[in-house]
């Protein structure tokens, strides 16, 4: 059996092709990994913001008139709701129990957490005003492996949930 003389010339072509494709495969893997992480963070924030809005809707006292206003995160019920949104528990530890890696706030202020709580009025049937509680969270997301490869900018996503205030 004789060998074809060309086979010696094509021996390393598979290795060269692999080296050429490897950066593309790594970039796709990094983007898929970070995309999954972002979706998981979004889902966790969405569920926690919904829980915080429901908690406040049942604990915030109902007033006779509806006046739209922004609630201070230092108020006791609002502070509990912010902890609930950030950690998944009303008494969660802000230093270690955060649901999302970007939330590393030592205080509960809106500037530190990105969580804003407000009361809104919803006019139904023309005259009846229903008080609605709105919890909004703006969460920064930092790409990990994709950013190391020079892909994917840093950005933030927002989640909001409204719930009718039923009071205590």
Description:
Helix 1 (13-59) runs antiparallel to helix 2 (76-87). The longest helix has 47 residues, at 13-59. 40% of the residues lie in helices and 22% in strands. The chain has helices spanning 13-59, 76-87, 110-113, 145-148, and strands at 69-71, 115-124, 128-141, 155-164. The mean pLDDT is 80. Strands 1-2-3-4 form a 4-stranded antiparallel beta sheet. By secondary structure, the chain is of the alpha+beta class. It contains 4 helices and 4 strands, in the order H-E-H-H-E-E-H-E. It is elongated, with a radius of gyration of 25 Å.
Shape: elongated
Distance between the termini: 92 Å
Radius of gyration from CA coordinates: 25 Å
Total of domains:
1
Structural class: alpha+beta
> What does the average pLDDT come to?
80
Could you describe the largest sheet, including whether it forms a barrel?
Answer: 4 strands, antiparallel
What's the helix count? 4
Query: What is the number of strand segments?
Result: 4
What amount of the residues lies in strands?
A: 15-25%
Low-confidence stretches: none
Strand line-up across the major sheet:
1-2-3-4
Helix fraction bin: 25-40%
Order of helices and strands: HEHHEEHE
């Amino acid at each position: 059996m004789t060998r074809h003389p060309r086979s010696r010339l094509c021996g390393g072509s598979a290795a060269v092709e692999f080296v050429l494709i490897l950066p593309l495969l790594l970039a796709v893997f990094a983007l898929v990994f970070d995309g999954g992480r972002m979706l998981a963070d979004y889902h966790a924030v969405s569920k926690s913001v919904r829980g915080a809005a429901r908690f406040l809707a049942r604990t915030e006292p109902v007033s006779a008139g509806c006046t739209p206003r922004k609630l201070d995160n230092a108020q006791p019920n609002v502070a509990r709701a912010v902890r609930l949104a950030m950690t998944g528990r009303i008494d969660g530890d802000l230093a270690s129990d955060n649901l999302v890696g970007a939330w590393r706030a030592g205080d509960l202020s809106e500037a530190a957490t990105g969580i804003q709580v407000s009361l809104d009025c919803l006019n139904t049937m023309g005259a009846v005003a229903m008080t609605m509680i709105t919890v909004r969270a703006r969460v920064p997301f930092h790409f990990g492996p994709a950013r190391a490869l020079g892909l994917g900018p840093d950005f933030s996503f927002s989640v909001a949930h409204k719930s009718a205030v039923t009071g205590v």
